[in-house]
Structure formats: C-alpha cells, structure tokens
Amino acid sequence: MILSDRDIREYIKRGEIKIVPCDLKEQLQPIGVDLRLGNTFKIFKITHKSHIDLAAKNYEPDTETIEVADGKSFVLHPDEFVLGITKEYVEIPNDIMAHIDGRSSLGRLGIGVHSTAGHADPGWKGRLTLEISNIGKLPISIIPGMRFCCLIFETLSSPVEKGYRGKYFRTTSPSTSKISEEFNERK
What we know:
CATH architecture: Distorted Sandwich
CATH class: Mainly Beta
CATH superfamily: Deoxyuridine triphosphatase (dUTPase)
Order of helices and strands: HEHEEEEEEEHEEEEEH
Structural class: mainly beta
C-alpha cells in the first residue's frame, strides 16, 4: 500500500521515516516527498580504455567530481549521463520501501532521474545517488536545491528479516557502480 501525505507526515513525526533536512510544507506531496538536488556530481571521463570491464579487480570508472555552489547551475548536455545526489539524508524502516520517481516537469524537458535504480530498500540509510541523463536535444542547466525527484513510500506485507546494509549503505556523495565487488567475491 502506498502511503498518503497524512501517513507520511505521521511516520516522520514518529521518527520511523527520517528525511533531513525537510520542509514538509514545501516538499510533501499527496503520495510522496519531493527531494532536492544536491551540490555534488560525478561525470564520466572519456578515456583510452576500450570498454568497462566489470570483472576487473576493484574496477572504478574514470570520473571527475564536480561541486556546484548554491545559486549556481550544472549544465547537462544532450546524451550526457552523470551521477548526482540528494540534499536530503533518508532513513527508511524495515517495513517500508520507497520508489524514486522523476518529476514530470523535468521529464518533459528530457531529464531522466534514474536509469534502473528506482527504489530504496527497506532499512536504507544515506543520501540517494541519482542517475541523471538528458535525452533531449538541448543542454539543460540543473540547479542544486531544486526539487528534483519524489520519494514514494510503500508498506511491505511484513518487515524484512534483514534491512539493507549493502555496498551503498550510508552514502554521502554520488557513488559509482561497485558491481565489480560481486565478481571479486566469487574468485
């Protein structure tokens, strides 16, 4: 069951869902909470490597971290993919999961907020990494602090036995893929 605005407000009031900082008057929507774009971005560099080798030990893509000051903007070019982060730190209890949904106002400009990772697991703690792409034909400036996505909460049939404690737990900056860790564990 998806939580309504009044249920979300109650979960936050009881401290079961944490969103810090959060102005519910501004960010609470009928079925979710808008999250704002943070100031840190990871851009992927074009390198001499011929491909991404997921099985390479401790593979880390070549990225550059960009910090954008409040009041400034980050220009997202057509066909560009970057990682961003939410301003808000989020904690979700073990009996709830959350969908990360892009805002339709941004989607209508060609901005995608996530490629595949459109949810936060029960037990999640941290800031959410956003997989941001521009599928439009024109560059678009995005601004830290703007409402960028919506977190929609859904109750589970029962609490999970083991809350999320995976490789992205307690994220504080945009995290690149750590999938190579899965291959290294098998060796």
